[in-house]
Design a protein that fits this description.
This protein is α/β, with parallel strands linked by helices. It is built from 22 helices and 25 strands. Helix content is about 35%, strand content about 20%.
């Protein structure tokens, strides 16, 4: 192994990995150098060329063994483990004092030889090992402060004492069901071209009436909807503030005694015009914000909330962006290079920020939180999605630049669907900077979602373990993996899960490292099961059973809908995008036809949910049978997409595309009738009846 790649491994970078074909794959030296330049400052070294690797490697080794205790330590179920990296021959005393989150003090001490040693190494020719001291906290969980002394040194550490398993994990509840629909797809006469929290609540009510437990949706995080305009919910403007596009304006108008606003009419068969929708909503929101702040009592409440949550800082960021009409990278230097945190309206005005824009953004965030908090009291629970990261122009990258590696972009390596790999344009978090920051940002992101959700899906859960990153200027085929301390990230997730009574789901689709699913099982995360990948391929067969510890559905927002799968629309897409050859297209269509025939045969079997003589088309019969199979199957949670009930063939997203496809711009047809016992289509009625029968609410 070259010194450059040895340095990469020591820095937490995997430059060599196994491809989806099972073949050894290596990033170029140029990509490795770029990744090392990105992480080097956090590790205390610089490297401009391969010849610099030996000196940088020596610097990492010195730092590693000078750091006797890492900045973060963890433990499970009320016990923490403090690892001492010391010379193996040192039998000196050690002391630990833990101040718990509740203010209690717990002390422990002893001699180093009393602690078993492991991980032996010979830096500088001196044998070192790791000796681990356990400190028992009588079951007290939380974020604690550790002070330690050992090997002639002393220091502090951040301790995470977490429950080993998440709240509400697999095996802990009844078999239940819910529906999936993106909020933007729930358009109504009142909400305009896109849905909002008002229409989402109507869907909650409909699901409750039929005995369902969840409404799953896409991220509802802040987005840039003017200049710049980036509508993907997976490239948000922030992971700690909401998207005011989804405010229930009718409810908010009533708070100030105003009439319900009249939304522009929905034009059938047209995509959601996010800019247009945002503009009319801002026109309504601006005077409501003025009226709310003009009320002394309500104005004081909003001001206190904004000060406590940092909303003034975010509001100033958005107000500046609206004035500059570009991302922060193009702002004047005084504004671009993140001024001191803006804690009050006066701070923002002193910086020259438009006070009216600040007021609107503060009120919008306050109102979104208030409406989501109210929705969280509903018997049906919100199933939210936490995206991998944020847009490169996001608020957090502007404010907390030191946490992000802006010369890298998260993505995915080549796979059967995307031989050219994927670059998502999301700057990854530095694993080193996160630890030094005591995970304050990650904790805030997790709490922000769990406060309002009953189940949280961790998008690309593999990214907690390692994240594929593409250096600037390199093709998506030439990336590296960046390793993360997954046990620390999972400890925060399980702790916050219990504190917020929120179950966890890991999106474990794609290339999944060996340690991911065992860790998910140990810590009580549900996995995913995508039914369309397990349909029978021969007549007489049946769909493969889903795992019991899964959230099962026929598809996801990144795959074909059932009707799209049935019609081969996904094959059409891959052909049109040049992702498959003519020969591959022909082979896929033959396989698809065989699977369709097998599924139709299965639909004719007893117990499939399809009765003889039902007035259903072939695609409807197959959809009802496939969903019924999930409903009666072992998966603890089953989700049905409202798009499938409507037999919609267009997907919400075609991964790997931006302008080539109208992603995230399609409404859900007939969503308001899909669960109604009198107005639903025969196929939708049969599907929901199967779920209700197989999974009654108890």
């Amino acid at each position: 192994m070259s010194k450059l790649r040895e340095l990469a491994r020591a820095a937490g970078i995997e430059a060599d990995y196994t491809s989806w074909r099972g073949q050894p794959t290596s990033a170029s030296d140029e990509a490795v150098l770029a990744a090392l330049r990105a992480i080097g400052p956090d590790l205390g070294f610089s490297v401009d060329r391969p010849e610099d690797a030996p000196a940088a490697l020596a610097a990492i080794e010195r730092q590693r063994y000078a750091e006797i205790v890492p900045p973060v330590v963890i433990g499970w179920d009320g016990t923490i483990v403090v690892p001492f990296t010391v010379p193996a021959e040192d039998d000196g005393p050690w002391e630990i004092e833990v101040t718990t989150e509740a203010g209690r003090t717990v002390k422990a001490h002893g001699r180093l030889f009393e602690l078993p040693g492991d991980s032996h190494a010979w830096p500088g020719g001196v044998v070192h090992c790791v000796r681990r001291a356990k400190v028992y906290l009588d079951g007290e969980l939380g974020y604690h402060h550790v002070v330690w002394r050992a090997a002639g040194a002393h220091g502090e550490a951040f301790a995470i004492a977490a429950p080993e398993r998440a709240w509400g994990g697999p095996g802990g509840g009844p078999r239940r069901w819910g529906v999936f629909a993106p909020v933007h797809g729930l358009a109504s006469v009142e909400s305009g071209q896109a849905g909002d929290l008002g229409t989402l609540r109507r869907l909650f009510d409909a699901v409750e009436r039929r005995g369902g437990r969840y409404v799953a949706t896409l991220p509802v995080l802040a987005a840039f909807l003017d200049e710049p305009c980036m509508v993907s919910p997976y490239s948000p403007a922030s992971r700690v503030f909401w998207n005011e596009l989804y405010l229930d304006l009718g409810s908010l108008a009533a708070d100030v005694g105003a009439a319900r606003p009249t939304a522009p009419p929905i034009v059938a068969d047209t995509p959601v015009d996010y800019r247009g929708q945002y503009h009319w909503r801002r026109h309504v929101l601006d005077p409501i914000a003025r009226a709310l702040l003009a009320d002394p009592e309500r104005g004081a409440e909003i001001d206190a909330w904004a000060h406590a949550t940092g909303a003034y800082d975010y509001a100033a960021f958005r107000a500046i962006g609206e004035t500059q009409r570009t991302g922060w990278h193009e702002w004047p230097m005084l504004l671009r290079d993140a001024p001191p945190p803006i804690r009050t309206r006066s701070d923002a005005i002193a910086l020259g920020v438009d006070s009216a824009r600040i007021n609107t953004h503060v009120v919008a965030q306050w109102a979104m939180q208030r409406q989501l908090d109210k929705l969280a009291t509903h018997p049906v629970r919100l199933y939210l999605d936490l995206p991998v990261g944020v847009n490169t122009d996001a608020y957090e990258v502007w404010r907390h630049r030191g946490l992000f590696m802006t010369d890298l972009a998260a993505g995915a390596p080549p796979d059967p669907l995307f031989l050219g790999g994927q670059n998502w344009g999301l700057p990854p978090l530095s694993p080193i900077a996160q630890r030094r920051d005591r995970y304050a940002y990650w904790i805030r992101c997790v709490r922000h979602h769990m406060k309002v959700a009953g189940m949280l899906r961790i998008d690309h859960v593999m990214g907690l373990f390692r994240l594929y990153c593409v250096p600037s200027g390199r093709p998506a085929t030439d990336g590296v993996y960046l390793r993360y301390p997954y046990d620390e990230l999972l400890a925060i997730l399980t702790l916050e899960s219990h504190r917020n009574h929120c179950a966890l789901v890991g999106e474990d689709l794609g290339t999944v490292p060996r340690q991911v699913r065992p860790a998910m099982a140990r810590h009580g995360l549900f996995r995913l099961h995508v039914g369309q990948w397990f349909f029978p391929t021969k007549i007489g067969g049946r769909p493969d059973r889903s795992p019991a510890d899964a959230v099962a559905s026929l598809n996801t927002h990144d795959t074909a809908t059932f009707a799209g799968w049935w019609r081969g629309a996904d094959i059409d897409d891959r052909k049109d995008l040049g992702l498959i050859t003519a020969a591959q297209e022909g082979a896929e269509r033959v396989e698809r036809d065989a699977s369709r025939q097998a599924l139709l045969s299965f639909a004719g079997m007893r117990g499939s949910g399809v009765e003889a003589g039902d007035p259903l088309t072939e695609v409807e019969r197959a959809m009802v049978a496939a969903t019924t199979d999930l409903a009666v199957g072992p998966a603890e949670v089953v989700l049905v997409a409202l798009d499938d009930l409507a037999l919609e063939s267009e997907p919400h997203n075609v991964p790997g595309t931006m302008h080539e496809r109208p992603n995230w711009q399609r409404r859900v047809p007939g969503w308001a009738d899909a669960l109604d016992e009198t107005r639903a289509s025969p196929a939708a009625a049969a599907t929901i009846a199967a779920l209700v029968t197989a999974r009654p609410r108890t």
